[in-house]
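Section 5.1 Outputs to date
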Amino acid sequence: MTLLRVFFLISLTGSVLLSSGCTRIEEVEVGDIKNFELIRFTGSGIEFEMDVPVENPNRYRVRVTEADLDIFYDGINLGNIANPRNIAIPGRSSGVYSLTGTLYLESLTGGSSSLMSIFFQKSADIEIKGSLKMRAFLYSRTFYVSETIRIDF
């Protein structure tokens, strides 16, 4: 009887591993950022909150587990957004998510002067480059981001 259980477990594990090649995480669609608000300035950066419309075409829940995004304004690297809290997006869903994060300033001289010029405008074109790692069950996939977005203040 024990040999039969071992064979069953090996067969089950093998079928899961073989079927993993057929499963893939489709790219989650992200809409235009709305309601961008600065929460507070800290010693190392700026905390912010924003509403982001997201559509998950996958049949299963997807979690954003890692982020490494560089933020540019007018060709100057303002800083980096890294490792936000885990964000879970239900399968086959569309919704607006309130996201918080911290912009870690790269250079207090170049970054802060560019940042101050943004505050005196009604909107700004921000370039975002980097990667997001998403996970569903045992599968993970890294998506590379290179977007220019307009943020209204």
